[in-house]
Design a protein that fits this description.
- Helix content is about 45%, strand content about 10%.
- By secondary structure, it is of the alpha/beta class.
- The longest helix is centred in the last third of the chain and has 37 residues, at about 615-650.
Length: about 950
Amino acid sequence: MKSAAPHSERIDRLFSTAEARLERWYALVSVAQAWAVKPDRAARAAVEVALAELRPAESFFAYPGPRLLRAVEDEIAQGDAGDVARLVRRIYNALLSSGYRADAADWETSDDGADSDGMVRLPPRLDSADTRRPYFETLIVSPAPPSRWPAIALDLRRLRRPEDQFVYESVVVGSFEDALLAALFNGSIEAVVIYDGFPFASQHDAPILHELLASQFGSQANGATVEEQGAQLARTLKRIRPELDVYLLSRRNVGEVAGDAEVARHVRRVFYGIEEPLEIHLSVIEGVAERFETPYFDNLKRYAQRPIGTFHALPIARGKSIFRSNWIRDMGEFYGPTLFLAESSATTGGLDSLLEPTGTIKRAQDMAARAFGCDRVFFVTHGTSTSNKMVEQALLAPGDIAIVDRNCHKSHHYGMVMAGAQPYYVEAYPMTAYSMYGGVPLRSLKKALLGLKAAGRLDRVRLVTLTNCTFDGHVYNTRRVMEELLAIKPDLIFLWDEAWFGFARFSPFLRPRTAMGAAADIEAWLQTPAAAEAYAAQAKTLGSDLDPSDARVLDARLVPDPANVRLRVYQTNSTHKSMSSLRQGSMVLVRDVDFHRVEAQFKEAVFTHASTSPNLQIIATLDLARRQMELEGYELVTRAIQLALDIRRAVNGHPLISKYFRMLDAAEMIPAEYRASGFTSFLRAGLTWGDAVKAMREDEFFLDPTRLTLVCGTAGFDGTQFKGLLASKYEIQLNKTSRNSVLLQTNINNTLSDVAHLVKVLAEIAGGIDEQLKQGTDAERAAFKARVKSLMEDVPDLPNFTRFHDSFREKGATIEGDMRAGFYAAYHEDGCEHIPLGSEEIDKRLMSGPDLVSASFVIPYPPGFPIMVPGQVLDAGTIGFMRKLDVKEIHGFNASRGLKLIKPSALVGREKTTPAPGARGATGGAKGERHA
């Protein structure tokens, strides 16, 4: 009979391997201690049941391993309740602290370190007190019978050498499905060694795995021959966790196997049988060492240890001006000497130049490109605001049209101004009840592009820029968006602002919705016969030119022409927002088949925006963030997702907290029309993994599980007020706010203790409100009810972009406009006017003119995007929204002076500054080649 698989009826438990393991071990510890106190038959039976429940899952982990588990079973069989309690408690503590990774005593079966035969059998070098070596686990997939598995692990353990950079233990499984389970559940696995000849089916009853295989990876693996199984497993493992090093041991013609292009893409090295075990061991160590290397950080450490004489413009370097100071010595005591020893303004000595990297920075960027699945990476030390402006300056020239999410970060709007591009603003769907926006529907994007085509302006369209995920967690179906828009314009460039979503690369479920994950899938699909067949079928139905007047084009699921597509994808991520980088650490990721044609102007954009004195520590932490995510990103991201689900469940399921607070689910954040799968929540009863993966793959929008919108208006707090309360009284820092909610996010830094603190605080606040309402007067209760109604029901409608004034639009334009001209018009004070927001003149001009034309960006926080841009005609909706705002922070608006507007007289006869169609300005090229 097959043993039970490590799963639960709760779908979210796939993300909780570490937590679930600890829960099972804690349950075993509890019943073992109870047996030690009262050693009767019932207590012993409870211990046996608890051990049986955790046993199957432990087959996917090296610790505690078969020997320690067998020792527990032996102690139970002998009836030694006290010894059982001590042993399982020791194992539990080692798992809780991860002490087994460095402490040899945790691997012992008895307190004195002796095995039953009197010999101490410890993993070699784990007992070294010198420098702690990182620990990882290697997955061995073998057709050998389970009785041989301990010997296989022991053979590899015997190959360890004192000079090895790392220590690893082996996890041995015997089937395709068990290998996938191990990779999914054990984040400590860094390498996989695959022997030919293993079967497909798991020895466990694993419904979760079957759902995942069928929905995410297809069922083709089960149809592979025994000879093909190893290569198929390598492909599937790399799809789940692309960072893993995979080694294939084959008894077939190894030259033929190694020469297979598909095998070469997924397998690091091919060996013949088991003829070279030491080479396997050395290869495993070397593979992990390549990911562990941090070229820039490693060199910076060496630099800090050298005796350097500094005669350059950075007194803080080496720290002498600090440690010898009479007044700022406390700065040195706070930061320590290393920070100052590692500072320099030089680019020699291996420190390299961020502007023209050729050494350690170049190597670090190349390694980041490998980790993030792209062709190139550029480090940025001034945040993703700068990254966005770099990309837009490099790719856009005056007169180009860019389709832009109106609710995107302000850096994109300023990027349009700097480049002189004409933004065609598209609107995200509104969530008026919570004063926020979602994402831009695909239909709106297609309509914009088809409208430009109908107007004869498609050749002017250069770029689409969208935010993925949005501030509030809306994740696009990036692949579908790019495929359908490329069907209309095959050379369209995409800039995905993934400031909040950089971590998603390291989740197999979220990766396909990242820019680079989707680009890789599109690139692979375009090379298949299925792509050509799909396009041929579409051309037969809709024609090859996709007539914008044909209503079917807007409704159809479009596919691009594989022969004409130029896949050009850029992604920016705020590394510091979701990975272990210092503040302002950012990256630009590039997957552009025509990058060589824009490389020169991209460098010019770098020269424009990057400092000639970048922060060395930020560069080093970008290097380190890549190392960490390649080696433990999967495990850390999985834990962050689980913690978010724990918070969601704890808040929405708590009888007191949920009276006044609740976390919004997908059903409330994403309209049903964009959730064709019917997905509503990870925590919905009866939801299967097949349902969840289908939603992740197919729905137009999906909600990032780590981003948590907490409604606080039902507790009588506006977002800003509640954020302040949590910060000032409870030492809890949050992300953004809206009129009636706050945004929390979990990341790789959070722990269960953080969750417990948050839940306790919310329970305390909810309890306080409850008590006040019970003890308060009718008038006080009525006031509370009115406050809640004001926050939750009396919400202003969200304004849409109106239009650019005709003075800033070319003849024949659709809704795009010359925002740069509007921006610089404000530089002429005599051409501008200020009108108080509440004045009657505003209302009079709204009714009868002349137009109110904004002279500046106006950005209230919340919602945090420009509700007015330079050159925009203001309408009653925008003015009404501004008048109802009760936020303290509004960029670009001085309440004492009023709205800054361009005078009507300054608009009359304004000369156009936009170049004629086809002029490329800085990017060069004639009209016929402008989008090469």
